[in-house]
Design brief:
The chain is α+β, with helices and mostly antiparallel strands and 607 residues long. It has helices at 6-11, 38-43, 52-60, 72-86, 134-147, 155-159, 166-169, 183-197, 201-217, 221-241, 290-301, 320-331, 343-381, 433-449, 465-478, 517-546, 558-568, 571-576, 579-583, 590-606, and strands spanning 18-23, 29-35, 63-68, 102-105, 114-117, 126-128, 250-258, 261-270, 273-280, 310-313, 336-338, 389-398, 401-411, 414-415, 421-424, 458-462, 484-489, 500-503. Strands 12, 13, 14, 15, 16, 17 and 18 form a 7-stranded mixed sheet that branches. Strand 13 (401-411) and strand 14 (414-415) form a beta hairpin. Helix 9 packs antiparallel against helix 10, helix 13 (343-381) crosses helix 16 (517-546) and helix 14 packs parallel to helix 15 (465-478). The termini are far apart.
Length: 607
């Protein structure tokens, strides 16, 4: 029990808005919270009946620190940053650090382009969304290609065309790159695309109907048939995506809990259209109620995302008034949080709740299967307890070039992707997987020794007895013990299910059998390490290929590179040129021409 004197601490806390932090005797952060009135909010932890979770937390408090902010919005931002940075164990923790994708229309171009976009929306053009997933954006772009053939090709591809591409041949583009469409006709398709993305589908259908009648009157039956098909497609899409005749932007957020697991379901409604939904499974402390979960979720979810004018909820969140003010300040306009709903909006929330329940049941079923595989692995390896943290390493390269090592992490809940790491391997003999593994392990486990990363219970290595011995030697040199090592090697016929598990203690390998739940878990972890290593190697290889040799030559800046590539039609033509020919390019001296020539020929010899 802490000897913390809360009465003395409360006398030092102001009544301003801000953020409070509760720390234990070791200085570790227990909890972060925000408040419109810091003194009143912190006092509430010591003057009322608390649930079990808060009782446990309060008993550990050794210090309370506060940061005063000017406004509720600043408190919201600061609280979210502190939670993401320190991940206090008594806070609801949301794992969602990805920005959401948009559809981008380059309205500044003579022939605008529609494209997938993720990032800050600061440049010219129009942005539509956000969409809950990349898949939702790509599905919408495919629909738009069929309805209104606005180009979706990259600008570099568009500018280099001398004849129409395949998209034009299959009637997915009108060919503006080679002048096959008039600017005014293309502008009509662009305008129709904008109206569709804004949810003005009825208006588009009405206009298409008028154009169809005009085409039929002019005996342009082929065009009339095309317009008829467009109308039919739009009507089918409208039936599937239409939510409300009122239009408007709304998010629907519903939180449900079962067996200690919480699912928060979010539906994104933009201009009256359902753009899709996404399920979140935040890490929630024991005894956290629905109101606390919703409040914490909204705080962390909207701190770096677009906030719609209305957010519909299946319950009232904690500190609803404060949260409304903070989100309104963040959005720069009024934001309404509503949970007492009727008629149509009540049915929307019910839809979100039903989807949350379904997602939660699916996850619990999956987790039950995962728990059984963990228990089977414990029994197979003879471990005293279930492994709480497992790491697996793998190596990837192409003929020894650009070697990358991966480290993936699994815990008792599954993959912990935020803890995954890659290591670019340098200074070894190309193709020496033992040396690559040694370098990766040393870099990883030095951080373990420094206390930056927890020590795993189980270390899996993609390899056999020899690889396992090398790993054991590295760990011995670092002075790390108490770590169970397992090597995973292919069986004699290299078929999945015939893997051999080698233990550091030596002896014969364990062959679990193709139907073993323990082996299925090992395969899952090993395959994930393999995938992560290959992805990293390919990214490194692609980056190396995209880097021009010219960029590494001193004295050859962007303008000179451009002049050289334009003069010789690309890098290949420049590589064939003699030094005297290179020196004729504007801005290139004879000495620099010789340097360019030698560098390009050295590169060709290495290749």
């Amino acid at each position: 029990m802490s000897s913390f004197d809360h009465r003395t601490a409360l006398t030092q806390i102001p009544t301003d808005p801000g953020v409070y932090r509760m720390l234990d005797e070791a200085g570790s952060l227990l909890y972060v919270g925000k408040a419109k009135n810091l003194k009143r909010r912190v006092s509430s932890y010591f003057g009322r009946a608390l649930n079990r979770r808060l009782q446990v937390m309060v008993a550990q408090i050794a210090d309370i620190q506060v940061t005063v902010t000017r406004t509720e919005g600043e408190a919201l931002l600061l609280e979210s940053d502190l939670i993401k940075t320190y991940r206090p164990r008594f806070n609801v923790l949301l794992r969602d650090d990805k920005s959401y994708p948009f559809i981008y229309l380059s309205t500044q171009d003579a022939f605008p382009r529609l494209s997938f976009y993720r990032g800050p929306r600061k440049g010219p053009g129009r942005y539509f969304g956000p969409y809950p997933s990349a898949w939702a954006v790509r599905e919408t772009l495919q629909l738009l290609q069929k309805l209104f053939p606005v180009r979706q090709c990259r600008d570099s591809f568009y500018r280099s065309r001398t004849r129409a591409c395949l998209q034009h041949q299959i009637k997915r583009c009108t060919g503006p790159c080679v002048g096959l469409v008039r600017a005014e006709d293309y502008a009509i398709d662009v305008e129709d695309s904008i109206k569709f993305l804004e949810g003005r589908t009825d208006e588009v259908i009405a206009e298409l109907g008028q154009r169809m009648e005009q085409a039929a009157s002019a005996l342009e039956f082929e065009r009339a048939a095309t317009l008829r098909d467009q109308i039919a497609t739009l009507q089918r899409i409208q039936q599937r995506q239409y939510v409300t005749a009122e239009g408007g932007d709304v998010d629907i957020v519903a939180a449900v809990e079962e067996a200690g697991t919480v699912c928060v379901q979010v539906f994104f409604i933009r201009a009256g259209r359902n753009l899709g939904n996404k399920a979140f499974f935040p890490q929630v402390p024991d005894d956290a109620d629905q109101a606390a979960v919703l409040s914490a979720f909204l705080t962390q979810f909207y701190v770096d995302k677009e906030i719609p004018p209305e957010v519909l909820l299946n319950a009232e969140p904690d500190e609803a008034e404060f949260l409304t003010a903070a989100l309104s300040e963040r959005a720069g306009r009024r934001v309404s949080l509503k949970h007492r709903l009727r008629a149509e909006r009540a049915r929307w929330v019910e839809m979100a709740v039903n989807n949350a329940v379904l997602a939660l049941k699916t996850r619990l079923s999956s987790r039950a299967g995962y728990a059984r595989r963990l228990e089977a692995l414990r029994d197979l390896l003879g471990l005293d307890d279930l492994p709480r943290r497992m790491e697996c390493f793998d190596i990837s390269h192409t003929r020894g070039e650009l070697t990358v090592a991966s480290c993936v992490v699994f815990d008792d809940q599954g993959a912990r992707k935020s803890d995954y790491r890659r290591f670019n391997i340098e200074g070894i003999t190309p193709g020496d997987d033992y040396a690559a593994m040694e370098q990766a392990l040393q870099r990883r486990y030095r951080r373990v020794l420094a206390g930056e990363v927890p020590l795993p219970d189980l270390l899996l290595i993609d390899g056999g007895k020899g690889q396992l011995g090398a790993v054991a030697a590295v760990l011995d040199d670092l002075g790390i013990d108490g770590l169970r090592l397992v090597g995973v090697s292919k069986g004699p016929d290299r078929k999945a299910g015939a893997e051999q598990l080698w233990l550091a203690e030596g002896g014969t390998p364990i062959i679990a059998g193709a139907d073993s739940p323990a082996l299925h878990l090992v395969q899952q972890i090993r395959d994930e390490a393999h995938r992560f290593a290959i992805t990293g190697h390919r990214q490194r290889r692609d980056k190396a290929r995209k880097t021009s040799t010219l960029e590494e030559i001193p004295g050859v800046g962007p303008k000179r590179r451009q002049n050289l590539l334009r003069a010789f039609g690309g890098l290949r033509g420049l590589a064939r040129a003699a030094p005297d020919d290179i020196a004729r390019v504007d801005g290139i001296s004879q000495a620099l021409a010789r340097q360019i020539h030698d560098a390009l020929h050295a590169e060709r010899e290495r290749a």
